Structures are given as structure tokens and as C-alpha cells.
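User: Please fill in residues for this 271-position structure.
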């Protein structure tokens, strides 16, 4: 119980120190890498101090059996120290179970929200590159209906270009969803743009190709950023798990050794 209490106290102190060391402003406070290293070192120090103190008390307060060999006494002290660490780890895990569940659940929800946000971001960036087309409200039946009423030579509409823009928007949205624009759609959109803007069909088709290229480039960048973020999160989780294992191993050794030190102090006091 003493070991678990010291561990919780030091973790709380470390959390307070960590919060005061991080600043949302640039060039203020410690960097993320420095903070991560400091947090891992603090975790190891917490296990070393708390487990060492608990092990020392366990060895110092253990009743000495008369007539036992020195090696047996040392073994029992070491075993008591190790058991102290084991019980402390279980108690700490139970006390921190709710907090850990909240952190894990929050991380899972954050990952789900990040994935959802990523999809929205990719669609949003692609839509901006293509002229702010809304992919969420894409109606496939409207796209098919538009193909049924296409004219070989679209009539110009100098007063109201909204219908033509809406139709082209649906075609572009369908192209973004499928990954590329069909040749027939590209030819039709080029004719509509040429008719509405007065530019030549080759120039209109060049605009379409440029817009599609920008859309693909933006989507590729968003996907690359998502992959880098996921890889960084994976590496961070692996590093934290390994650091936790090392810190717990340090705690087990510190508790076992502290118990032998406490046992020697007990023997001297009794002598």
C-alpha cells in the first residue's frame, strides 16, 4: 500500500510538472520529443522510488525466523520485496483502471474521429480543388438523368449559369468519387465550359485536366499526411509500452533489492 500510494503521488506530481512544461505557443516550453523523454524517465523514477521504498519497508518489518541460514534469510527478504512490488502493481492497476479505461476509450474515440475527419478532410480538399463540390449530397440518379438530356452542342446561357454549373458540379463530384473523369464526361464538360465562357474546347479541356490533377495531388497529400500520423502514433504507442515494461522491471529489481537492504538493517537493529 505504501508503494502504491507513493507511486500515485509521484504520478500526480509528474502530471503537474508536465502540464506546466508544455506551452501551446511556438518557441515556448519544452519540445514534444524532450517532453516524451522526460515523461519516460519520470515513469522509471516513479517505479524506482515507490517500489524501492515499499521493498525496504517489507524487508525491515518482516519477522526474522531464528535458526535460518543467511542465504535463506536473504532469499525470503528478496521474495517479500518482489511480492511487495507485485501487489503494488496490482493495486495500482485496480486504482487506475477507470482512468486507464477513460484514456483508452478516449484514444479509440479520438482515432475514430480522426479517421472520420480524415475522410472529410480528403473530400473537402478534393472538393476545394475541383471548385468546392459537395460530395456528401451527391445524387447518382441526378447524374444519370443529366446524361439523358445532354445535347451535342450545349446552348449558351449568359443570364443564368447556375443550371450548367450545377450539372458540371455533379459530373465533377462523380469523377472525384470514381477517381477519374470518363472521356464522354470530359468532352461534354469541355463543351459546356467553352460555350459558357467563350474559350476554345482545347483550353476548356486543359482546365479540366488541371482541376483533376490538383484534386488528385491534394488527395494524395492528405493520404500521405494520414499515413505519417498513423505511423507516428504506432511508434509512440510501441515506445510507451516498451518504456512501461522497462520501468516495471526497474521497480521489481528496486523492490527486491530494497527488501534485502531493509533486512540487513533489521538484523543489525535486532543484534
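Assistant: Residues filled in for all 271 positions:
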Amino acid at each position: 500500500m505504501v508503494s502504491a500510494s507513493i507511486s500515485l503521488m509521484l504520478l500526480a506530481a509528474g502530471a503537474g510538472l508536465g502540464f506546466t512544461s508544455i506551452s501551446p505557443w511556438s518557441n515556448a516550453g519544452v519540445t514534444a520529443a524532450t517532453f516524451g523523454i522526460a515523461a519516460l524517465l519520470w515513469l522509471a523514477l516513479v517505479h524506482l522510488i515507490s517500489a524501492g521504498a515499499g521493498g525496504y519497508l517489507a524487508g525491515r518489518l518482516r519477522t526474522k525466523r531464528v535458526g535460518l541460514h543467511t542465504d535463506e534469510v536473504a532469499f525470503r527478504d528478496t521474495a517479500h520485496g518482489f511480492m511487495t512490488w507485485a501487489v503494488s502493481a496490482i493495486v495500482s492497476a485496480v486504482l487506475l483502471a477507470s482512468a486507464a479505461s477513460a484514456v483508452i476509450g478516449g484514444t479509440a474515440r479520438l482515432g475514430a474521429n480522426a479517421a472520420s475527419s480524415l475522410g472529410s478532410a480528403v473530400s473537402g480538399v478534393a472538393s476545394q480543388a475541383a471548385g468546392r463540390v459537395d460530395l456528401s449530397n451527391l445524387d447518382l440518379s441526378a447524374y444519370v438523368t443529366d446524361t439523358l438530356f445532354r445535347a451535342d452542342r450545349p446552348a449558351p446561357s449568359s443570364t443564368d449559369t447556375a443550371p450548367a454549373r450545377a450539372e458540371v458540379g455533379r459530373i465533377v463530384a462523380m469523377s472525384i468519387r470514381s477517381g477519374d473523369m470518363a472521356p464522354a464526361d470530359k468532352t461534354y464538360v469541355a463543351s459546356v465550359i467553352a460555350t459558357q465562357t467563350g474559350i476554345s474546347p482545347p483550353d476548356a479541356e486543359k482546365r479540366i485536366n488541371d482541376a483533376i490533377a490538383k484534386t488528385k495531388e491534394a488527395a494524395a497529400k492528405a493520404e500521405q499526411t494520414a499515413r505519417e500520423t498513423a505511423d507516428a502514433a504506432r511508434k509512440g504507442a510501441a515506445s510507451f509500452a516498451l518504456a512501461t515494461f522497462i520501468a516495471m522491471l526497474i521497480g521489481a529489481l528496486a523492490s527486491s533489492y530494497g527488501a534485502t537492504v531493509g533486512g540487513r538493517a533489521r538484523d543489525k537493529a535486532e543484534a
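For context: Residues 125-133 have pLDDT under 50 and may be disordered.
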